[in-house]
């Protein structure tokens, strides 16, 4: 058995020796460098584009919207975002002109020689003042008025969360070229088939004339989910016009200013409770800032809405949500995908409720938390794999939460101490896979191939972006077949080689696509048994079996497609039913200390228990949990994109601060494994869950330490000092 | 003419003296193991050793390295035979997406080689100029500790 073991990661040796080739490392002969001329106003009409006559333009290739052979559109959900602005710009840093030159520095110089004049139009930056709604949702359960009427107390709160930059260390980078009539697009990306779909519309080409290939990718976290479709379109336009390969590799400033970020959010809670702490009514309102184009905002809002009531049962719930347009660069996918914003509110709100009821927030959570058989706000009955209580119990025990609350209360009373100490708690659920009927629409495919020489290859479009996809797939396939994991390789995501397994997002790679790989491998296993009499046991045996199964053909493929579990029902029109096939669960305790003089926060320890069904590779799963939690801690304490006139002004790692090794505490990770019958070997999603709740746990700990609730992030020394005034 | 010793090999560099060291390594010497993350000395992905000390190669003009020794990630092990440090990273989950890894390895290599104190705190201090967005650092620290302990045996 390989599942459950810490198989070393497949991509490790190449990455550790500097041999792994990221896009900018690849020597593409004759490749030119592409750059982008971007809007300098947040909203306006383009009056003119002028090219400095003293510059040798004949050395360059220049592309504008006029050069687009097909649709001027980045195909995603809504048909609203142009590939290149044509006539009007709706946000700062919107791409207008593309230039390619053999020399990178000269290409940048050329971009400076383009002068664009605008007729300014009024911008909207405040999401509460926007009248353009991209998408709205309503979830209702029970009778809200009756719930509030029966309540002993009603507690209200308003919570805001800022944007966040993904800050993958490899910036966005894509190259394009044509080879034998096929347009090849290759680079740093999460979702090859999203790029393919966008390319088809831009270039009016069929799938046989476009090929998208992922290169080694230096982090994504959602930031390379939808944006590469635009970048690929840009690189390909330049390459086709130049008749040679062109690559566009952003520098850090451009990447941070121009590409997608987490949606800023405002969440209001009005909660009715019995005096013993039982939830009776939750009325929740969510507003998110989508930026200038819809991109994925509707889906981000959906996940945020579906997680807004938290991991608690409440008989009467209403969630009203909307995502609106502002004249800022579009916000998009980022680990957690709307859930961290709404979970911040619902979790921190327990601290307000605790004050109102004089019952501690741990007891309140225990009283209301999801259990087997609980019903969610959408009417979903949780029929299996519910680890919420166990996560909470383990986190409380191992963090010594209860005794530390008391110990720190005593410490904080002593005026001679130079610090305040606090420990804060949070709990959450996180739906794995696409929302509602999303997986049905995706209809993902994955498979395995057996070559006549006995090679076993996993075929999936799910990308390795550091999370361990390739290692996990090999382990799942190996155990499904009953052979060593070393027998399997994993094909590079290449749209001419692998089927469309859907995007590498939504904590779906292991649970959904891993499940498909497992099913396909079972088909292979049955073929071995039927046509060879058994599953091969040795390498020599495998060669003989391969010859028997392939019957002269170069290879045999076993592909399967997603099938909706019959027990899952969902209604998109009413937003009722099984919002997700299953949920993962987490609890976290953050233990911290605040300097009374400087208000600096020092993280002492983080304890977290996470129910992910089954850890296919515990080391990699823990890596996801510690890394995701660290991103959550960064959002909680350090990270804040600052906008002025619609553009990020701290668009550099010098003043957009992400956690370093000295900002990061010691983590104790406790894996909880409540198996899910439909997941491969019981596995559920792990990728996003750890990002969800460090924020509210930090805010609760700061409140414990200082006595002040700061209902926003990040909890910087400035904000803490302000709150203490 | 600028004379460099890169990974033990003597090299005459004929390009522009103020070319960034990272560009000279990547473009002129095809040593693409050294990565660029920010271009302003903040992320440490481009860390190489200059006379044994970690530096951000995006901040160093190649003329500043004249007559000096440069070590890059390519000077450590190869996939078939990883160095102790690299093997530690593989065993302990020290690399995920891998883009910060070469810089992280070079800083860690200098720290372990310095024969100074090698505990959690000293490793975290040594690595604090190398940003990693994937791991949360704990497994990187474990990786270095494992390699340092292995070295004493």
Write the layout of secondary structure elements.
The complex is a heterodimer of chains A (725) and B (153).
Chain A: H1 12-16, E1 32-38, E2 44-51, E3 61-63, E4 88-89, E5 95-101, H2 104-112, E6 114-120, E7 133-141, H3 144-150, E8 153-161, E9 173-179, E10 182-187, H4 192-203, E11 210-214, H5 227-242, E12 246-249, H6 252-258, E13 265-273, E14 279-291, H7 297-306, E15 317-325, H8 339-357, H9 361-368, H10 388-399, H11 401-413, E16 419-431, H12 438-442, E17 445-451, E18 456-459, H13 469-481, E19 488-490, H14 509-531, H15 539-550, E20 555-561, E21 570-571, E22 576-577, E23 583-595, E24 601-611, H16 618-637, E25 643-644, E26 647-648, E27 666-672, H17 694-706, H18 717-724
Parallel strand pairs in A: 1-12, 10-11, 14-15, 18-19, 24-27
Antiparallel strand pairs in A: 1-5, 2-4, 2-6, 3-5, 7-15, 8-13, 9-10, 9-12, 13-14, 16-23, 17-18, 17-20, 21-22, 23-24, 25-26
Helix pairs in contact in A: 4-5, 7-8, 8-17, 13-14, 16-17
Chain B: E1 2-6, E2 9-13, H1 21-28, E3 47-50, E4 53-56, E5 69-71, H2 84-92, H3 101-113, H4 120-126, H5 138-152
Parallel strand pairs in B: 1-5
Antiparallel strand pairs in B: 1-2, 3-4, 3-5
Helix pairs in contact in B: 2-5
Given the structure, what is the number of helices of chain B?
A: 5
Give me the CATH superfamily of the largest domain in chain A: Aldehyde oxidase/xanthine dehydrogenase, molybdopterin binding domain
Q: Which residues of chain A form runs of ≥5 with pLDDT under 50? A: none
Question: Could you name the CATH topology of the largest domain in chain B?
Answer: Ubiquitin-like (UB roll)
**What's the arrangement of strands in the largest beta sheet of chain A?**
3-5-1-12-9-10-11
Q: Provide mean pLDDT of chain B, rounded.
A: 96
Give me the count of strands of chain A: 27
Q: What share of the residues of chain A lie within helices?
A: 25-40%
- Domain unit count of chain A: 3
* Distance separating the two termini of chain A: 59 Å
Main beta-sheet strand count, sense and barrel state of chain B: 5 strands, mixed
The poorly predicted ranges of chain B are none
From the alpha carbons, calculate the radius of gyration of chain B and give it in angstroms: 15 Å
- Gross morphology of chain A is globular
CATH topology assignment of the largest domain in chain A: Aldehyde Oxidoreductase, domain 4
Q: What is the annotated CATH architecture of the largest domain in chain B? A: Roll
Derived from helix and strand composition plus strand pairing, the structural class of chain A reads alpha+beta
Please write the string of helix (H) and strand (E) elements of chain B: EEHEEEHHHH
Whole-number tally of structural domains of chain B: 2
Sheet of most strands of chain A = 7 strands, mixed
* CATH homologous superfamily caption of the largest domain in chain B: Beta-grasp domain
């Amino acid at each position: 058995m390989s599942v459950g073991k810490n198989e070393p990661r497949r991509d490790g040796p190449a990455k550790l020796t500097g041999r792994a080739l990221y896009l900018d490392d690849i020597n593409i002969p004759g490749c030119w460098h592409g750059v982008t001329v971007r809007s300098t106003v947040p909203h306006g009409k383009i009056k003119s584009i002028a090219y400095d006559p003293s510059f040798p333009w004949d050395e360059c290739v220049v592309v504008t919207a006029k050069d687009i052979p097909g649709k001027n559109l980045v195909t995603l959900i809504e048909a609203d975002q142009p590939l290149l602005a044509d006539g009007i710009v709706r946000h700062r840093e919107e791409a207008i002109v593309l230039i390619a030159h053999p020399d990178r520095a000269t290409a940048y110089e050329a971009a400076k020689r383009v002068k664009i004049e605008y007729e300014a139009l009024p911008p909207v930056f405040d999401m509460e003042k926007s009248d353009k709604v991209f998408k709205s949702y309503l979830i209702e359960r029970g009778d809200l008025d009756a719930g509030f009427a029966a309540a002993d107390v009603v507690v209200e709160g308003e919570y805001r969360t800022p944007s966040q930059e993904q800050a993958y260390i490899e910036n966005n980078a894509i190259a394009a070229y044509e080879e034998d009539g096929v347009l090849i697009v290759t680079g740093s990306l999460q979702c090859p088939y999203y790029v393919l779909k966008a390319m088809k519309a831009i270039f009016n080409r069929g799938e046989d004339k476009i090929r998208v290939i992922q290169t080694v990718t230096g982090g994504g976290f959602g930031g390379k989910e939808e944006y590469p479709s635009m970048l690929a379109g840009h690189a390909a336009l330049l390459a086709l016009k130049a008749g040679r390969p062109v690559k566009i590799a952003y520098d850090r400033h451009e990447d941070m200013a121009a590409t997608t970020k987490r949606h800023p959010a405002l969440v209001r809670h009005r909660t009715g409770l019995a005096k013993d702490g039982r939830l009776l009514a939750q009325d929740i309102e969510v507003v998110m800032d989508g930026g200038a184009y819809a991109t994925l905002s509707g889906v981000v809002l959906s996940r945020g809405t579906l997680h807004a009531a938290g991991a608690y049962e409440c008989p009467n719930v209403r969630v009203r949500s909307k995502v609106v347009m502002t004249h800022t660069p579009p916000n998009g996918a980022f680990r957690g995908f709307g859930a961290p914003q709404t979970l911040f509110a619902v979790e921190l709100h327990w601290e307000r409720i605790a004050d109102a009821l004089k019952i501690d927030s741990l007891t309140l959570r225990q009283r209301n938390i999801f259990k087997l058989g609980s019903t969610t706000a959408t009417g979903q009955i949780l029929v299996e794999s519910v680890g919420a209580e166990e996560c909470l119990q383990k986190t409380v025990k191992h963090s010594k939460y209860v005794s530390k609350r008391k110990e720190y209360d005593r410490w904080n009373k002593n005026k001679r101490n130079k610090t305040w100490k606090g420990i804060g708690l949070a709990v959450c659920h996180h739906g794995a896979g696409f929302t509602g009927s999303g997986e049905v629409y995706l209809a993902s495919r994955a498979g395995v191939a057996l070559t006549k020489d006995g090679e076993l290859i996993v075929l999936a479009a799910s990308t390795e972006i550091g999370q361990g996809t390739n290692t996990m797939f090999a382990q799942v396939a190996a155990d499904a077949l009953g052979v060593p994991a070393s027998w399997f390789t994993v094909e590079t995501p290449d749209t001419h080689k692998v089927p469309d397994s859907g995007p590498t997002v939504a904590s779906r790679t292991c649970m959904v696509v891993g499940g498909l790989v497992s099913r396909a491998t079972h088909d292979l296993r049955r073929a071995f048994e039927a046509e060879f009499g058994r599953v091969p046991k040795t390498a020599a045996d495998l060669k003989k079996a391969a010859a028997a199964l392939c019957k002269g053909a170069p290879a045999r493929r076993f592909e399967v497609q997603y099938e909706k579990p019959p027990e899952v029902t969902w209604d998109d029109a009413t937003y009722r039913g099984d919002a997700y096939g299953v949920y993962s669960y987490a609890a976290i305790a953050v233990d911290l200390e605040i300097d009374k003089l400087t208000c600096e926060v020092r993280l002492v320890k983080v304890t977290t228990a996470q129910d992910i069904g089954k850890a296919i590779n515990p080391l990699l799963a823990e890596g996801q949990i510690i890394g995701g939690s660290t991103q959550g801690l960064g959002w909680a304490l350090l990270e804040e994109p600052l906008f002025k006139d619609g553009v990020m002004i701290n668009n550099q790692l010098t003043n957009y601060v992400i956690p370093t090794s000295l900002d990061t505490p010691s983590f104790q990770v406790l894996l909880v494994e409540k198996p899910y019958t439909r997941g491969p070997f019981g596995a559920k999603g792990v990728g996003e869950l750890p990002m969800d709740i460090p924020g509210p746990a930090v805010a609760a700990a700061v409140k414990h330490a200082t006595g002040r609730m700061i209902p926003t992030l990040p909890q910087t020394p400035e904000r803490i000092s302000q709150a203490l005034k | 003419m600028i004379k460099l010793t890169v990974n033990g090999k003597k090299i005459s560099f004929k390009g522009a003296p103020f070319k960034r060291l990272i560009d000279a390594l990547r473009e002129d010497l095809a040593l693409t193991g050294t990565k660029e993350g920010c271009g302003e000395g903040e992320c440490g992905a481009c860390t190489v050793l200059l006379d044994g000390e970690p530096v951000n190669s995006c901040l160093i003009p190649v003329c500043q390295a004249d007559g000096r020794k440069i070590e890059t990630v390519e000077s450590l092990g190869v996939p078939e035979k990883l160095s102790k440090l690299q093997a530690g990273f593989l065993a302990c989950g020290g690399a995920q997406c891998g883009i910060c890894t070469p810089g992280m390895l070079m800083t860690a290599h200098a720290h372990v080689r310095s024969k100074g104190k090698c505990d959690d705190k000293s490793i975290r201090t040594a690595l604090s100029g190398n940003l990693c967005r994937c791991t949360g650092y704990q497994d990187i620290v474990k990786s270095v500790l494992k390699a340092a302990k292995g070295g004493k045996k």
